[in-house]
Amino acid sequence: MKFCFGFLLTCLLMVSPLRAAIVINEFQPNPAGGDPATQTIELRATAGENSFVGFYGSIEGDGAFAIDRSGSINVNFVGGLATVDIPDLENPTFTFYISTADHSTATSIAEITTAIDALGVPDLNSDSLYGVTLGGTDLVNHSLPGFANEPLIAFRDAATLAWIQVYEDNPITSAFAFDVNGVQIPNMNFDLDPTVTTFGSTNPTFTAVPEPSSVTLLALAGTVFLRRRRAQ
Predict the structure, then answer these.
(1) Residue 78 falls within a domain, yes or no?
(2) What's the total number of domains in the chain?
(3) Residue 166 Cα distances to 55, 100, 102, 107, angstroms
(4) Which among 198, 91, 103 has a CA at the least distance from the CA of 149?
């Protein structure tokens, strides 16, 4: 019985990787219309944190390494969420990160040593992204014709924390959701409209069945449990 419980726990850990306690939850890499003076960044506390005092930065991805935006963050969480308004980010490609120390003078990615989450947002997939290097995620641009090449919105699925990106079609008539790898997800598959920002409230969640890898592992754990019971 102990073996079965341990095996099942291992399976769950394999399909539910550990994440940073405070993560970037939603922002607009390239808001619709003209560039605004400021934009909103939403953070999410995943382990009951009450506040966060730290820094943010945006790393240029179209050319040589450079920190082209940076500043401080001081927020309190309400219901696990907090928002902060910052000067508008340069349009993608860039990598946005949050950290516990100021890295605004960094001249290489190796000097950013205290990042706690990061998201690389491409204009072209051949550009430089540093999200994974900093312990976060790099988005993959879609390869579909007839869509803009910079996401309007990037947000984490409310249930899984997986990144979702939203692109407009071109010419602009509607917006559509894509997963982290640039694969389109039908908007109707979310419990809320994924093309509308939800700053300060719960993000949409994808309502499809669990990934096959998760189902396979859990089924395997159940098979082992039943076989051991029959053998007793």
Answers:
(1) yes
(2) 1
(3) 26, 29, 30, 31
(4) 91
Q: Which of 194, 200, 134 is nearest to 168 (CA)?
A: 194
Q: Give the structural domain span for 40.
A: 19-206
CA geometry: angle 31, 37, 42, nearest 5 deg: 60
Q: Which residue from 172, 173, 178 is spatially nearest to 153, judged by alpha carbons?
A: 178
Q: Would you say residue 131 lies in a domain?
A: yes
pLDDT at res. 146: 86
On whether residue 122 sits in a domain, the answer given is yes
In a domain, 41, yes or no: yes
227 pLDDT more than 70: no
Contact 98, 73 (CB under 8 A): yes
What is this structure's pTM? 0.81
Q: How far apart are CA 222 and CA 202, in angstroms?
A: 33
pLDDT of residue 148: 87
Is 178 within 8 Å of 185 (Cβ atoms)?
Answer: yes
Give me the pLDDT at residue 232, please.
55
Q: What is the CA radius of gyration of the chain?
A: 20
